[in-house]
Amino acid sequence: MTFSNSLHLVVLLLVLVVYGEAKVFAGIVSSRSAWEDKGTFITKFCFHDRRALFKYETNVSSTGKWYFYLDDHWSDVLAETECTRKLAKSRFSVDIHNTVGEQFVNQWLRPHFWYVVFADEYTCRIDPPDVDNSLGYTLVFLNPDSSGDATDHFGEDQKGLLSMYALLIILYIGGISLFSRSVWQTIQKGGPMHEVLQMLSVAIAIHFMATFFMLIHLWIYKNDGEGSVFFETTSEILDVLAQLTMVWMILWMSLGWTLGSTDHPLRERKQLGLMISVTVIEVLLVLWEQSYDESHYTYHPHENLPGILLVALRIGLACLFCYNLVIRLKSERSTLRRNFYQAFSIACYLWFLAFPCLMIFAMIFPQYWRHRVVTIGTVIIQSIAMLWLSKQFLSRSLYWEVSTLSSTTLPFKRDRGGTGMIDHTH
User: Fold this and answer.
1) 236, 207 in Cβ contact below 8 A?
2) Which 3 state secondary structure label does DSSP give 135?
3) Which segments of 94-192 does DSSP mark as H helices, in order?
4) Within its chain, how far is the Cα of 192 from the centroid?
5) Lowest-pLDDT choice from 215-224, 242-251, 316-325, 392-401
6) What is the mean predicted confidence (pLDDT) over 376-389?
7) For the chain, first and last CA: distance in Å?
8) Dihedral sign, CA of 229, 234, 237, 242?
9) Bridge-partner residues for 419, per DSSP?
10) How far is CA 15 from CA 7, 20, 199, 386, 396, in A?
11) Three-state DSSP state, 142
12) What's the rounded Cα separation, in Å, for the pair 328 and 379?
């Protein structure tokens, strides 16, 4: 199985199982569901530390209320089993006597996540409600802009992401314009080593598209507070594809692919089974993790079971890479190849461990900072790692010296007077 075939397999798996979920604070809630849940959780939003605004619109008036809970007390709220005490833990509530209403939210110390819960007069009764009143709603959360007016749809945890993605797109366009010609010329030469460059180029191109679609989604979200389900979901699918492409390129090279072995690892059933298993597991964990929150991003503050398992999977893949590399170095006699593997391993460890390490590191920050720390930090570190690998594959570096193309295509002999290769076949 070639790389293109394996990429088609990954795309097929993602198309079959990935679904989109709109990041829209709108829906329908009922008295019965509120009674069963002792208050129905609606959504959460990170208000700024200045004067912010909450607005709602419903299809009918109701005896219910929107209850607001601070993130500092949310774990206690979830642990509370008595309905009345649970509602009493809210910091404030907003009546739904009218179909339209608003409430200013003032904070003084720092930004907070606020959790919104719906409850009505039937919620804390012992017996279930006789009628199942349904309430259609649309909630709008607005932070103050630079002038102090409540017009900004972004939560405090999303602050700076739009600018970061815009800057990344500019850097990508600059890099593509500078290196695309040399990459294409190198790939056209053919040979086993160039399949590695093809995989790296595909990973970078897919990640560029994922970044571009996320930028479009965030730009739309900035204007309407809803964004685009299509662009956000497509961005997340492409990001998973880019991550998996990098994973398999790195793992296959640690097995000696293009560095002494001309056989593709996927020709072995063991490697093919491992690839399919890890791909399916990662996709399922991503979907499971997304189901915990209506606001899903490319990089989560993974504070739930599937998120922890996903981080553990990344660490496990890094350990597998380390194991393959150790075995490879023990049997490797070539000094050139050993030197290449040392430089190669540094870039790969940066790429593999950036996300898990930042997830752990982010735990020391307040909750509203964690998403930004993980997202921006991971993008920067992985971009550096990909640039490092690109430099090795494009330039006349150690990789060119030790690759299968240099050692098997022609009986080259090194010219002792320089770094070039002299052809003694004539």
Assistant:
1) no
2) strand
3) 161-188
4) 31
5) 392-401
6) 84
7) 37
8) negative
9) none
10) 12, 11, 21, 26, 39
11) strand
12) 29
Strand, helix or coil for residue 311: helix
Positive or negative torsion for Cα 147, 148, 152, 156: positive
Q: Which residue has the higher pLDDT, 88 or 262?
A: 88
272-280 contact pairs (CB < 8 A, 24+): 272/1, 275/6, 275/248, 276/9, 278/247, 278/313, 278/317, 279/9, 279/10, 279/13, 279/244, 280/13
Q: What is the DSSP string of 36-83?
A: HHTSEEEEEEEE-SS-EEEEEEESS--S-EEEEEEGGGHHHHHH---H
In angstroms, the Cα distances linking 95 to 28, 70, 132, 244, 314 are 17, 18, 19, 48, 46
| Beta bridge partner(s), residue 152 | 143
- Exposed e or buried b for every residue in 377-397, given b needs 16+ CB within 10 A? bbbebbbebbebbbebbbeee
Residue 321 CA to residue 392 CA, distance in Å, equals: 19
Longest dimension (CA), the chain: 96
Polymer length in residues for the chain: 426
Q: For 327-354, b where at least 16 C-beta lie within 10 A, e where not — what string?
A: ebeeebeeeebeebbeebbebbbbbbeb
Predicted model pTM: 0.76
